[in-house]
Recover the amino acids of this structure.
């Protein structure tokens, strides 16, 4: 099947779902693909850089609508399992670049790369300067390293913060207590 | 009624050059010994919320600037991932506390897209009416506080008077003045109360003359013109490169409004104009805000017509797996009782998938990226905050301005810190 986005360099997979197109791109060729999309396909607006952590994806117990195979925590009903095991993900982290074409022929497109923990990806600041703060937030919240970013420091959390709060292994309410008796 | 020239959306260089997000002092142009670094905020009365600006001054000229955010970071996204889908709806309006209704709409629309849920038309018209009232509300707060920061105190009271009238309408519809949680997946939490349409019409009749008054107070004021014209310049190319949106983009001459160019809800069925000004300065941003309020009133009036026509129709989708059953059925129907129990205890399940939904909030492109694993809780919630993007332009718009203008320029970006920091 030929898609409208045939010819984009480095595309591993093209997904159409709910009217949205996702191009999964080889991380090594991300900048090449983005430059092509900007120059040849007119995607002149980077709407967002949306990272996600898939640690533990699909590992909740599988259940029918009532009761689970592994039993059910009655004190916390929302912890019960899924009806169906979700499709596998290639790696732990995804970074989605939400593109927009501001022109008479508007369109949206998602470019996605998959990364392991600690695996770096090239910064797209040379393609879209707006990526600067978005990438800093992705580093701050999920610890994704962007190579070539001129100033990859925390943006929302304090500079001396440890850990990346939006990772799935970072507990809710896991912040250290300041000014406690032990200080 | 204002009419707006049909102009091309964007005719410019498609390849943006590098634009600074941090402005460093240029040692060739300034003697570093003369440069004084001043910390502005985060608790400065003239910054919008807890924004901190580290400013390098050479005399009165701003030669370097760094915006520091994060003082209002409350972990909304992390919290929402720990709540069931229908409980997390309450979080979304609190992110951008001035355009609460728009954020609620955004999140609910994203859930509906994942569910593939159809919303009844009456609910859609009500959503549009409230979202546009919310736009007027947000612009009024912007106008009042921006004028206040430049010394025009009286305007602040006038704006907040009208804002109060809008909050009364929200109270009438949803029971609370802000953060109503009036929208839910499938439609509304309740039907609009009788009298809402009449009350809103009364407001719509009054609002345009109020906007004219504000314009007369400011546009005829020499001090206001002196302090806003030709200040805080942002070109169309830079605005697009920095992902600016909403009034920021339209004041830089880019004719771009999602309601017009990528319509959602029923925006393609109403008549309204998109104000575009080419100057890219603080004054043009002010003009865009004023015109948008007038256009929003027109949209609200058209929505009210449709609400009258659809009186008595369904205001929520009839999907018992997602929407709570009507209260009276709980006493007679076992099925309804089970559905009610399931939704309240574990929440509804949303099919696996990922979506990115974007609406034109009062601040521009507000996006929501959702990932579901098929369970009762969102796997990933991410908000694309227009305030966050707007603050990224600080270093570009204040280059070589005077310290006194910094207030006007930073205010014209219209940042809401809750939105920027989430």
């Amino acid at each position: 099947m030929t898609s409208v986005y045939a010819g984009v360099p480095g595309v591993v997979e093209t997904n159409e779902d709910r009217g949205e197109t996702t191009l999964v791109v080889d991380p090594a060729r991300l900048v090449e693909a983005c430059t092509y999309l900007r120059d040849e396909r007119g995607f002149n607006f980077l709407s967002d850089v949306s990272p996600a952590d898939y640690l533990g994806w699909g590992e909740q117990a599988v259940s029918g609508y009532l009761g689970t195979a592994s039993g059910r925590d009655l004190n916390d009903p929302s912890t019960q399992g899924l009806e169906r095991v979700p499709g596998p993900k290639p790696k732990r982290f995804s970074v989605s670049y939400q593109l927009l074409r501001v022109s008479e022929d508007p369109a949206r497109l998602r470019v996605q790369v998959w990364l392991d923990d600690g695996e770096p990806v090239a910064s797209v600041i040379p393609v879209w300067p707006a990526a600067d703060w978005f990438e800093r937030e992705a580093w701050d919240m999920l610890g994704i390293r962007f190579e070539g970013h001129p100033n990859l420091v925390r943006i929302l959390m304090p500079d001396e913060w440890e850990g990346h709060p939006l990772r799935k292994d970072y507990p809710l309410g896991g912040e250290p207590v300041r000014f406690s008796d032990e200080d | 009624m204002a009419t707006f020239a049909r102009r091309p959306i964007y005719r410019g260089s498609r390849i943006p050059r590098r634009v600074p997000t941090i402005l460093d002092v240029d040692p060739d142009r300034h003697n570093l010994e003369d440069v004084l670094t001043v910390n502005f905020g985060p608790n400065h009365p003239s910054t919008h919320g807890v924004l901190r600006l580290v400013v390098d001054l050479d005399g009165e000229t701003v030669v370097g600037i760094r915006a520091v955010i994060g003082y209002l970071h409350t972990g909304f996204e992390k919290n929402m991932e720990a709540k069931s889908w229908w409980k997390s709806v309450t979080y979304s309006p609190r992110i951008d506390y001035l355009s609460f209704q728009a954020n609620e709409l955004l999140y609910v629309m994203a859930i509906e897209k994942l569910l593939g849920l159809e919303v009844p038309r009456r609910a859609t018209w009500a959503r549009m009416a409230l979202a546009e009232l919310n736009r007027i509300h947000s612009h009024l707060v912007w106008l009042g506080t921006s004028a206040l920061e430049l010394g025009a105190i009286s305007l602040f009271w006038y704006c907040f008077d009208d804002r109060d009238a809008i909050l009364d309408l929200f109270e009438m519809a949803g029971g609370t003045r802000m953060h109503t949680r009036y929208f839910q997946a499938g439609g509304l939490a309740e039907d609009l109360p009788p009298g809402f349409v009449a009350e809103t019409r009364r407001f719509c009749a009054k609002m345009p003359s109020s906007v004219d008054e504000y314009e007369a107070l400011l546009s005829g004021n020499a001090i206001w013109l002196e302090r806003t014209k030709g200040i805080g310049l942002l070109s169309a190319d830079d605005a697009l490169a920095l992902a600016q949106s909403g009034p920021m983009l339209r004041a830089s001459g880019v004719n771009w409004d999602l309601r017009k160019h990528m319509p959602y809800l029923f925006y393609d069925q109403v008549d309204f104009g998109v104000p575009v000004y080419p100057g890219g300065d603080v004054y043009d941003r002010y003009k865009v805000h004023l015109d948008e309020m007038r256009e929003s009133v027109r949209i609200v009036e058209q929505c009210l017509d449709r609400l009258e026509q659809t009186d008595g129709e369904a205001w929520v989708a009839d999907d018992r797996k997602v929407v709570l059953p009507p209260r009276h059925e709980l006493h007679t129907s076992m099925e309804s009782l089970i559905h009610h129990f399931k939704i309240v205890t574990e929440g509804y399940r949303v099919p696996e998938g990922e979506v990115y939904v974007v609406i034109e909030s009062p601040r521009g492109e507000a996006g929501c990226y959702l990932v579901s694993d098929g369970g009762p809780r969102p796997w990933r919630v991410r908000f694309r905050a227009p305030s966050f993007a707007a603050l990224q332009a600080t270093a570009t718009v204040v280059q070589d301005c005077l310290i006194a203008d910094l207030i006007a320029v930073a205010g014209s970006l219209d940042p809401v810190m809750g939105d920027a920091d989430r």
Q: What stands out?
A: Chain A touches chain B through 57 residues (CB under 8 Å). Chain A has a mean pLDDT of 81.
